[in-house]
Amino acid sequence: MPSLNKFYSLDKIPPDLVVSGGGGPNVNSLFSSQTGLRWGLYAGNSAAAGDGLFAAGLTTSTGQTTAGVNDATHGRGQRYTSAGASGDNAGQRPNAGFVTRQWNPTIRMKFKLGQTNLVRFYFGFTSNTSTEPTGDDELNAKSGVLFYLRSGDTNWQVGRNSGSGATTFADTGIAVDTSMHVVEITAINATPAFTVTLDTTTYTNSFTTTIPAATTAMGPVWSIEANEAATKNFEYYYVEMVQSG
């Protein structure tokens, strides 16, 4: 079995996996080499429909609007925009727990924010499968590891919790901006640890304390929350996940 935290990124598709005629990646071939693993994919062509693990278990934010975007460098993406009130969300959240640390999941997303002021951003794994992510301490008394932007932060944060008390935050030291980024979160159950990486080498850190237990059920989330009465948006160009269970 291949390494659980290695899979083809949509940024790094080998030429022989491209469908003849330029039709795009052959998704069946793309993941066939990952025998024994389960995958989920949002490829940027739809804001609501995903493949594999992402075909179910996720819910779009109430009241949001979506629109396709075409970036000359990064390709096809989707823009999620909140409805306009303070506290409105835009993005995807889990409505079922289908991820656990024991399955060594990796999730990766290419994205960019539309704004950095008075907006919160959440990406990663959470045990919250019933409500929209909200507030600066979304993981309070929950389990999860999130790449985070709290309202008022000037640097990206990593938030984590093992299911009780307030979220433990780590400041990445990397300034928040509206540029394109790739963020990745990987669970390594044998250690145990969760590793968070931004843009491959810009930031990487492995967290071994205050992390979800091996069998705690979680789901993936990528979402923003407005912290003022104004629309907020972000764009995603792919979200991909792989795990053994």
What would your notes on this structure say?
The chain has 245 residues and is mainly beta. It has a single domain (42-243), classed as Sandwich (Jelly Rolls). It has 1 helix and 16 strands. It has one helix at residues 27-32, and strands at residues 38-42, 51-52, 58-60, 65-71, 75-81, 89-94, 106-113, 119-126, 143-149, 155-162, 168-175, 181-188, 193-198, 203-207, 219-226, 233-243. The chain is globular and about 40 Å long. The protein starts with 26 loop residues before the first helix and ends with a strand. Residues 1-5 and 13-30 have low confidence and may be disordered.
Rg, please? 17 Å
List the secondary-structure elements in sequence, H or E.
Answer: HEEEEEEEEEEEEEEEE
CATH fold topology = Jelly Rolls
- What value does the average pLDDT take? 88
Strand content: 35-45%
Mind sketching the topology for me?
Layout: H1 27-32, E1 38-42, E2 51-52, E3 58-60, E4 65-71, E5 75-81, E6 89-94, E7 106-113, E8 119-126, E9 143-149, E10 155-162, E11 168-175, E12 181-188, E13 193-198, E14 203-207, E15 219-226, E16 233-243
Antiparallel strand pairs: 1-2, 1-16, 3-6, 4-5, 5-16, 6-15, 7-12, 7-16, 8-9, 8-15, 9-10, 10-11, 12-13, 13-14
